[in-house]
Amino acid sequence: MTDVIREIALLLMVVLLPGFMLILSVFPKRSLMEGDLDTVFKLLLGMISSLLIAIGIAVLLSFSEIVTGKTILDSDELLLILSILTLLFAVIAWARGGLSNYIDAVSSIRSGGAEPRDLLSLATRKRELQAKLYELESYRNSKEPALKEEVAVRSEKLLQEIEEINVRIDAMLAESPVGAVEGTDRQRG
């Protein structure tokens, strides 16, 4: 039974985890790709990166075997090195925000794309949408009419979603005791 678990862990380490954590640390933010495409793209890049990392480590270990004359290349050593690299990349991804962005995206997909319900999540989502809108604005002066039209459509959708979030934030602030105080301050000022 432990051999089966070890082989499954080795397979995950060779095929997916180190490269995926590396990709999340290098590209922490979601891209302009719609829906699940961003996650699928990062998973594919992660698989390719994992295989390249595993091959690189295997080459280094076999090279050290040639130099030292001792057999070092074993699945246990490979699993240990890949686990350490995965943890290192996961810490970097977490520090850069890539891991939390991915977890938010997966939880959103699992809940059927449910909207965020607390103020912090709404504010975070609003910032993400504003960043996408800012990024889209760089394409607004394109000479391509199709691109201009696509930018206009996407910008309009983003603006609508930002406005919906603003309405929800205002409603949440109005319902809370802190929001009542803030609401009176807004009316005065």
Polypeptide structure, described:
The protein is mainly α and 189 residues long. The chain has two domains: 2-107, no CATH class; 116-188. The chain is 81% helix and 0% strand. It contains eight helices and no strands. The chain has helices at 2-15, 17-26, 37-68, 75-96, 98-110, 119-137, 145-175, 177-188. Residues 179-189 have low confidence and may be disordered.
Keywords, separated by commas or semicolons:
single chain; 189 residues; mainly alpha; 2 domains; 0% strand; disordered C terminus
> What is the end-to-end distance?
69 Å
* Average residue-wise pLDDT: 77
* Helix/sheet category: mainly alpha
Radius of gyration: 23 Å
- The gross shape turns out to be elongated
Query: Low-confidence segments, ≥5 residues, pLDDT <50?
Result: 179-189
> What's the helix-strand series?
HHHHHHHH
Strand content: under 5%
Biggest β-sheet description: none
Number of strands: 0
For the record, the count of structural domains works out to 2
DSSP summary: helix tally: 8
In which range does the helix fraction lie?
over 70%
